[in-house]
User: Which sequence fits this backbone?
């Protein structure tokens, strides 16, 4: 399964919405297949997709991998409290680490949440000890993700 990322404040119409939802299901479909699926012309699909890409509503196309089958059996979340106004700088530093899948700037008891995957506990331990040495990291709280019940991209309405 392939997906794309949508991030926009722009208004899209029903045809755009239907194209985006078809692409969420399978971004490898041809313009002809998309057009047939939503009952519009191939030219309409081609022009709409090009516009959505140009406007950065469609940011990229990629494959969704089964990380467990690839040996990444350890998945964690790390809630972090970061001090002295260095939040963005530290989040960007952590985001550059290969095992990090996501970094979220959040409200509440934590300032940031990190999602990361590892092949084993030893590499996870090395990662955790590394980020705990970073300046301005006050508190970390790590949780193992035992089972993913749902992980999908939001359909557009």
Assistant:
């Amino acid at each position: 399964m392939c997906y794309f990322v949508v991030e926009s404040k722009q208004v899209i119409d029903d045809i755009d919405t239907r194209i985006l939802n078809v692409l969420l299901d399978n971004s490898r479909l041809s313009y002809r297949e998309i057009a047939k699926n939503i009952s519009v012309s191939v030219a309409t699909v081609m022009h709409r997709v090009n516009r959505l890409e140009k406007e950065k509503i469609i940011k990229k196309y990629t494959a969704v991998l089964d990380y467990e089958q690839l040996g990444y059996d350890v998945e964690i979340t790390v809630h972090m409290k970061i001090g002295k106004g260095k939040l963005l700088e530290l989040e960007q530093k952590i985001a550059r680490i290969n095992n990090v899948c996501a970094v979220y700037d959040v409200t509440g008891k934590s300032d940031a949440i990190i999602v990361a995957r590892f092949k084993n506990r030893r590499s996870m331990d090395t990662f955790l000890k590394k980020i705990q040495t970073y300046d301005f990291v006050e508190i970390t709280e790590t949780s193992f993700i035992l089972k993913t019940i749902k992980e999908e991209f939001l359909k557009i309405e």
Observations:
- The longest helix spans residues 42-54.
- Helices lie at 14-25, 31-38, 42-54, 87-95, 121-132.
- The chain has two domains: 2-63, 74-144.
